[in-house]
Each structure stands twice: as C-alpha cells, then as structure tokens.
C-alpha cells in the first residue's frame, strides 16, 4: 500500500485499516470509525515521537555519551579499588602469617 497521511486514514478500507493497526501491534477489532480513530491516534503519537526525537537528537546523543563516559570512569575507579583491596588483603594475610609465627616462637 502507498504511503498515506493522517487525513486520508478515513478513506482506507477496513481491511487496510486492520493491516495498518496490526503492523503497529494494535487491536484490529471494532467498527470502521473505531479503527480510523485508533490508527489516527497511533499515527499522531508516532509523529510526535519523531518530532521530539528530531528536535532533541543532538542533546540526547550528548547525554548518552556523557552517561557512557561516567560509567566508564566508574568502572575504572572500581577496578582501581579492587586492585587496592587485593593489595591490602595480601598485606593483611602476610601480617597475620607473621603474627602466627611470632606467637609460635614465643611458645617454644
């Protein structure tokens, strides 16, 4: 079927209306006037979403990029913290081992 606009929806046949609604995952039951209203509402929503996306596209892209950079920095800090914790754990285990040796030496 050729492209059509919101104004021409009422000129579609019921079978065409149902096809368009089905393609959008919307209910296909009801009288023609209900199908026309449902399809018009869906098309108006789609148009609004496109307009908002077009207007904010650079802003949204920048926000996504900023979030990605923050997440990457968080992961790097997390990795550094894990390394520091592992080093601290190794030192503590070493100290614990030395302490046990000292206590064992005092008992002898």
| Estimated share of beta-strand residues | under 5%
Shape: rod-shaped
With helices defined by DSSP (H or I, 4 residues minimum), what is the helix count? 2
CA distance, first residue to last residue: 96 Å
Task: Report the average pLDDT across residues.
Answer: 83
The share of residues in helices is over 70%
- Secondary structure category: mainly alpha
**Main sheet attributes: strand count, strand direction, barrel closure:** none
Total number of beta strands: 0
Radius of gyration: 33 Å
In sequence order, what are the helices and strands, one letter per element?
HH
Biased composition (Basic and acidic residues): 42-53, 60-81
Organism: Nephila pilipes (Giant wood spider)
Region (Disordered): 42-83
Protein name: SAP domain-containing protein
Helices, strands, pairings?
Blueprint: H1 14-23, H2 32-107
Brief overview:
Residues 42-83 are annotated as: Disordered. Residues 42-53, 60-81 have a biased composition (Basic and acidic residues). 80% of the residues lie in helices and 0% in strands.
């Amino acid at each position: 079927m050729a492209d059509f606009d919101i104004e021409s929806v009422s000129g579609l046949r019921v079978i065409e209306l149902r096809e368009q609604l089905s393609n959008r995952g919307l209910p296909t039951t009801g009288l023609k006037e209900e199908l026309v209203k449902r399809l018009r509402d869906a098309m108006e929503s789609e148009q609004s979403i496109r307009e908002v996306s077009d207007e904010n596209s650079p802003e949204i892209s920048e926000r996504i990029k900023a979030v990605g950079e923050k997440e990457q920095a968080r992961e790097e800090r997390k990795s550094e913290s894990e390394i520091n914790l592992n080093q601290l754990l190794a030192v503590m285990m070493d100290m614990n081992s030395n302490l046990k040796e000292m206590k064992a030496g005092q008992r002898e």
